[in-house]
Amino acid sequence: MFKNQKNIQLKLSALGHAYNDAYHFIIPLLLPFFRQEFSFSYLQSGLILTIHVALRSIFSLIFGSLGDRFNHKHLFISFGFVLSSILLGSVIWIISLPLVVTALLLMAIGVSTFHPLATAMVGEKAKPEKQGRDLSLFSAAGTLGLSIISLLFGWLVTLWGWRMACLLISLPGFLLAWGYAQLKNDVPVHDNTQIKLIYKNLYIVLFIAHGLRNLGTWAILSFLPTYATDYIGLRPAISAWVISLFFAGVLTGSLVMSRVLDQKSPLKFVNIATISAAFLIFILTYSTIPIIMVLLVICIGLSQGFYFPAQNTWLTRVSTNQTRGKLFGFTIFIEGLSATIAPSLYGWLADKFGLVYAYRLASIPILIAFFFYLTLYYMVKTSRNTHLRNTIS
Asked: What's the predicted TM-score (pTM) here?
């Protein structure tokens, strides 16, 4: 057992987030090789991604609920890393294409254990005055993991091929599984004793806003390299790096949040990030200068880096240890649902009206989400005032 449980858990959660996001992103990295080796069509590639996202969303909801019910979040996460590592490493021995695809799709089950439960654990272990900092750094670690795996995977494939690369990347997952298994299942010392806003209507407003915001965001991400090529005039090889610029903005935003989030209301940052994203996306569609587009993409990523830590901090503060995993699981389920719908919906709109107009339409659900978040902010404020008046009287 680890002696300094709290510090070890926070460091382990950051490292685990980086690695879990790398596992989650492995299929998009493998698809180009599948197209070369197995003659995959775009339809087959899209179906694999859709099924993977759907499985991850459903099982995030399931494991979030199980973690709350049995209060063994760390053991579920440990199981997830073992399962993901076994399945990813097994592709070095599997020759059959259907079995390779099946193994990679089943990885979604292992990957799904992490986000709802680890996010809840980070919030539970953090001191109330440092929840925003810890959750922001936790978010930044995931983005950093995506960046590193993109570079590392290409290097390993160059040296030994994609099958050996998968095996090598899978091995550290077993160490993370062991680390999580060593954590004690203790009751968090610093549970928030402030007002717990458990009214279901608040959560409903949050979930609607979260779904709408992610619908617009995933529409932008799905076609960002294509937009840079077709409308900005960048070469395809350069356009692929536009996604990296977006995640650089996300990483920067998360690090900024780690310094300021505990000093202000998290919902204020959620509202600022949401309205900013809507206007930045709309402005992007009128920009034809590459450097301006680059700056706008980074700023959109920056708003995303503000958004997730702020929302996770607020949800941590208004939930209990018995419901936190379930709530985080449901937010991931909604995000996955949006990620499943957005590419098809806005791809159809792009075919009908052009990608520029599809992008402008993508800003609309984000703008609507802003009004839902603004409503939530005032609902929370009203609930707190009512509670204080009842307490005084």
From this structure: 0.83
